[in-house]
Specification:
The complex is a heterodimer. Chain A is built from four helices and two strands. By secondary structure, chain A is mainly alpha-helical. The radius of gyration of chain A is 11 Å and the shape is globular. By secondary structure, chain B is an alpha+beta fold. The chains are: A mainly alpha, B alpha+beta. At the A-B interface, helix 3 of A face strand 2 of B.
Chain lengths: 72, 220
Amino acid sequence: MCVKPDGTLSLSAEIILKVCDKPATIDEMAQATSLRSFRIKSSIRELTAAGLLEEQGGRFRLTQKGKALLTG
Amino acid sequence: MEDTLTANMEETTRLPRIGEPAPSFEAETTMGTIRLEDFQGNWLILFSHPADFTPVCTTEFVAFAQMAEELRKFNVELMGLSIDSLFSHIAWMRNIEANFGVKITFPIIADLDRNVATLYGMVMPGESKTETARCVFIIDPKGVLRAMIYYPLSTGRNMGEFLRLIQALQATDAHGVATPANWQPGEPVIVPPPRTQELAGERLKEGYDCKDWYFCKKQL
């Protein structure tokens, strides 16, 4: 679960969102974090559905909502 | 009624087939919602165990966890499954870490609705109607099922065999060869036999280590 019931982020979700401050591919996210690629794919699905990430040409980047949540 | 029972039994015991795409699924795991497709690009060992908080399964999880890092060197991921709840899985993982000092670093499917167990034929009603057997499915980076191994409830698995099996499959894929009985990485591999009389005649002149035209080995 990437977004906790209180609306804050899990540690892994926070790590992924920080990497996506600049548009990043799944491979780039895996290289920049210690997370396995299957886990990144799963988290991206959830973060995209929550409106925190968006895809453009195979790269994922923060949405305004994602930025706002990350900067608190 | 009898037809329904037979149909249910067939569904429970249906097995996937080697060489075909592994049955697709989305499941709740200890690491969130995961789809089989999330492992594309990696080899996957999908394995089931009968139940959390049981002794043989605990020894297996400790062994799987201890081998996880070695498996990752060969681009292999692990994912477990049993017909238990997420909370049971989480409690057991924490218990294993507390009692055995081993952290479980791979996801475990909470298959309470038996969706994945049914897709993969993991329940063996002759042994238990309520638990999954000790099944192992080796799935390649393209999502194709490459090997299946089944163990009974009473027998813990040999982790080294799964690594050996994947190394053999990787050698086969990379070099178009087969591997002999008890093969270990670094040992000679089998050159596929020629499939025409002409090629059979040429085989012994090709510089392989041959006992006969159909039985040749080479070093990779």
